[in-house]
Design brief:
The protein is α+β, with helices and mostly antiparallel strands and 436 residues long. It folds into two domains: 8-224 and 348-430, 3-Layer(aba) Sandwich (Aminopeptidase); 225-346, Alpha-Beta Plaits. It has helices spanning 28-42, 45-56, 58-69, 79-92, 153-168, 192-197, 249-268, 305-329, 356-367, 382-386, 415-430, and strands spanning 19-20, 96-99, 105-109, 118-124, 138-140, 143-145, 176-182, 207-211, 218-223, 225-234, 238-239, 274-283, 289-290, 293-302, 337-346, 349-350, 373-377, 391-394, 399-401, 409-411. It starts with 18 loop residues before the first strand and ends in a 6-residue tail after the last helix.
């Protein structure tokens, strides 16, 4: 039977906000030293055996992918998928496994203790899709179609495959490793899971690998920061004819959007790349009613934390100005009120391209015959990066597209290679324990 045509023409980045930047290099001597270290790992019999195991047990990884994809995990309702992920961690084998207060699932695989360090490798449990979405995996030819199959169920399946391979060949590391499924990575989840993971008094974490999406070339070492707000304008409301002259929340909100668009457009035309968006408008009861309440959701992003704060200041100022002017223009009635609620705060930041952790990921990518692409995105790695803890986001391998859409798809084209890269970067950072 001829192989069905794969939808390569529709390939979309699984990390939708990714910005690829030119590949910076460490000093030649440092880069060569790191590459030699990673090459030695790649040639170690235990790593070679783990690589073979990943290929030979790829069908098991694909079963994990399908099974976990078909467990709904809408925002703030990841518990069922989390329990399935926890059961798999325990079945494969970890020293201990648990669910923390925020809903993150953690499995600890102890190292030899030689370094006293802890490295995390994680995928996120949640999807962007609301409750009731059909998440049944449909097979068309050799391609899987289902919401969330790549972002980020592929990440979860990769984390499990890495653990399975390490256990199968008795591959020990010096550092402890935490295998994690985080909650709240998407949208209004606002990275709540990884924020809890890195809370004051949380577990020791010295380096962090997020497995998000599919690309086996990208090394995301820069965090794209964002501020998100819900803006609500309230007033007395009334009949469009009989109460005409009351301050109108919809008119005030429209004025606010115009002021913000004009000011933000001017601000974002120079300096670090920065964006803004009004994504949702809500409110009103009928065409002939003055609304008593209207609201909008606003998203602002920037490569620069300073630029993000400055744009936020512009936003706050014009929101107040619009409502004040609407109140001054009213003919009678009570004034409007303004509520500006922050519903998302993701910090910007970066790990230097010549940092040893980033260079290990670069070397691993090259040694697998791929050209690495350094980039920026908004992922779980934003939080450790903002705290000065080295972190990278890697894909779990394969080919896919349509992320965040009902038509998301995944093709297991060179899928094991992405898993192998994650394992190699993890072992390079955690340290391969000496034999015996």
């Amino acid at each position: 039977m001829p192989r069905p045509q794969s939808p390569f023409h529709r390939v979309l980045p699984a990390l939708v906000a990714l910005t690829v930047v030119p590949l910076a290099r460490a000093t030649p001597a440092a880069a060569q030293t790191i590459e030699a270290e990673v090459r030695a790992l790649l040639e170690d019999p235990r790593v070679e055996a783990a690589f073979r195991h990943i290929v030979e047990h790829d069908a098991e990884t694909m079963r994990d992918l399908v099974t976990l994809t078909e467990i709904p995990a809408p925002p703030f309702k990841e518990a069922e998928r989390g329990q399935a992920f926890l059961a798999r961690l325990r079945q494969i084998g970890v020293d201990s496994a648990w669910v923390d207060e925020e809903g993150n699932v953690l499995g600890l695989r102890r190292g030899t203790g030689g370094s006293g360090r802890t490295v995390v490798v994680s995928g996120h449990l949640d999807t962007v899709f609301p409750e009731g979405t059909d998440v049944t995996v449909k097979m068309r030819g050799d391609t899987l179609f289902a919401p969330g199959v790549g972002d980020d169920t592929r990440g979860l399946a990769t984390v499990l495959a890495v653990l399975r391979a390490m256990n199968a060949v008795d591959l020990s590391t010096e550092a402890d490793i935490l295998f994690v499924g985080t909650v709240g990575e998407e949208g209004l989840g606002d990275l709540r899971g990884v924020k809890h993971l890195f809370r004051e008094g949380g577990p020791r974490i010295d380096a962090f690998i997020s497995v998000d999406g599919i690309s086996d070339r990208r090394v995301t070492h820069e965090g794209l920061g964002s501020h998100r707000y819900r803006v609500t304008v309230k007033g007395p409301g009334g009949h469009s004819w009989g109460a005409f002259g009351l301050a109108n929340p919809a008119h005030a909100l429209g004025r606010a959007i115009t002021y913000f668009d004009v000011a933000a457009d001017a601000f974002t035309r120079s300096g670090p790349r920065t964006s803004y968006n009004v994504g949702v408008l809500e409110g009103g009861t009928s065409v002939n009613s003055i609304p008593f309440e209207v609201s909008m959701l606003v998203d602002m992003r920037s490569e620069s934390q300073e630029a993000l704060v400055r744009l936020d200041s512009i936003f706050q100022r014009v929101m107040r100005r619009a409502v004040e002017e609407a109140n001054e223009a009213r003919r009678h009635g009570d004034p409007l009120t303004l509520e500006v609620e922050m519903i998302g705060n993701r910090p910007s930041g970066e790990v230097a391209a010549d940092h040893p952790f980033v260079q290990r990921a670069v070397a691993a990518t090259r040694l697998l015959g791929l050209e690495p692409q350094l980039g920026r995105s908004s992922t779980d790695s934003n939080i450790p990066i903002s705290k000065g803890i080295p972190a990278v986001t890697l894909g779990g391998g394969g080919v896919g597209g349509g992320a965040h859409s009902p038509d998301e798809w995944f093709l297991n084209e060179n899928g094991p290679r992405g898993i192998q890269r994650v394992l190699l970067v993890l072992v390079a950072e955690a340290g391969l324990a000496p034999v015996g």
